[in-house]
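thought: user wants a sequence for this fold. calling inverse folding tool.
action: design(structure=
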C-alpha cells in the first residue's frame, strides 16, 4: 500500500515512519507543514524547517507546505497537502499522534473526506515505556523546546540518553507533565534513527523565553 507520512522531524513522526516501513508500506512522500505561528494547535514549530535534512538522510521525498498556524485555517492547509499526496498515489496517511484527540480526530476527519485511510501506530502507547524503547532501539534526538514546570531544562540541545529518559520520567511523575511530551511540554528533533543512512550533527543556541519556557534553536546542521 502506498502512503504518505505527516512528518515534523520529531521522535513521534519518525517512529511512525519507521513503523510504516517495517510493516511493508511504500512511502510516496513525507509531508511537512511549516506554521507561521509558534502557537499552532496542529503542527510542530521549533526547527521544523530542517526536515529536509532528515528526509535526505533517509532517502525519502519531502513535500513542504506553509500553514497559517491559525486553529481552523491550518486544517484547510492540511487538507490541501493531503489532496496533493493523494494525487501522487497515496491511499493512506500515517501520523505520530500519541495522545492528542484533537490532532488524531482532525487528521482522521480530513483524510476520510478525501478518501485516505489513516494509521496512528503510536496511539495510546504506554508513555514511559515508549520513551525507553526509542533510545534502546537507536533513535537519537535532541529536545528543542520545553515549557513545563519541573522539566529538566538542562537537557535541551543534548542528545538524549537512557539516563536522561529516566530523569525525564522521574520529573514527569513528580511534577505531573507527560513523559513523552504529548501535552506540548516539549518538542524534539531526530538526528539519527534506524532508517537514516547517515547521522545529522546539529549546533544551536539556547534561548530562555520565560521562567518555565526554553528553546534550543538550531543554527547549523550537517
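)
observation: tool returned 222 residues.
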Amino acid at each position: 500500500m502506498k502512503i504518505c507520512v505527516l512528518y515534523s522531524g520529531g521522535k513521534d513522526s519518525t517512529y511512525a515512519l519507521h513503523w510504516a516501513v517495517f510493516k511493508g508500506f511504500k512511502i510516496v512522500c513525507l509531508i511537512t507543514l511549516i506554521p507561521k505561528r509558534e502557537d499552532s494547535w496542529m503542527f510542530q514549530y521549533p526547527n521544523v524547517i530542517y526536515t529536509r535534512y532528515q528526509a535526505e538522510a533517509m532517502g525519502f521525498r519531502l513535500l513542504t507546505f506553509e500553514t497559517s498556524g491559525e486553529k481552523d485555517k491550518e486544517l484547510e492547509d492540511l487538507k490541501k497537502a493531503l489532496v496533493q499526496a493523494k494525487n501522487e498515489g497515496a491511499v493512506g496517511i500515517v501520523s505520530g499522534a500519541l495522545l492528542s484527540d484533537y490532532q488524531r480526530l482532525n487528521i482522521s476527519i480530513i483524510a476520510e473526506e478525501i478518501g485516505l485511510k489513516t494509521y496512528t501506530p503510536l496511539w495510546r502507547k504506554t508513555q514511559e515505556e515508549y520513551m525507553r524503547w526509542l533510545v534502546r532501539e537507536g533513535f537519537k534526538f535532541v529536545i528543542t523546546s520545553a515549557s513545563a514546570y519541573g522539566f529538566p531544562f538542562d537537557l535541551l540541545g543534548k542528545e538524549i540518553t537512557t539516563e536522561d529518559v529516566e530523569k525525564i520520567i522521574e520529573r514527569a511523575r513528580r511534577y505531573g507533565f507527560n513523559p513523552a511530551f504529548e501535552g506540548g511540554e516539549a518538542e524534539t528533533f531526530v538526528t539519527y534513527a534506524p532508517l537514516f543512512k547517515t547521522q545529522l550533527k546539529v549546533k544551536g543556541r539556547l534561548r530562555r523565553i520565560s521562567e518555565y519556557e526554553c528553546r534550543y534553536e538550531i543554527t547549523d546542521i550537517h
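thought: summarizing for user.
answer: Here is the designed sequence. The chain has two domains: 2-119, 127-221.
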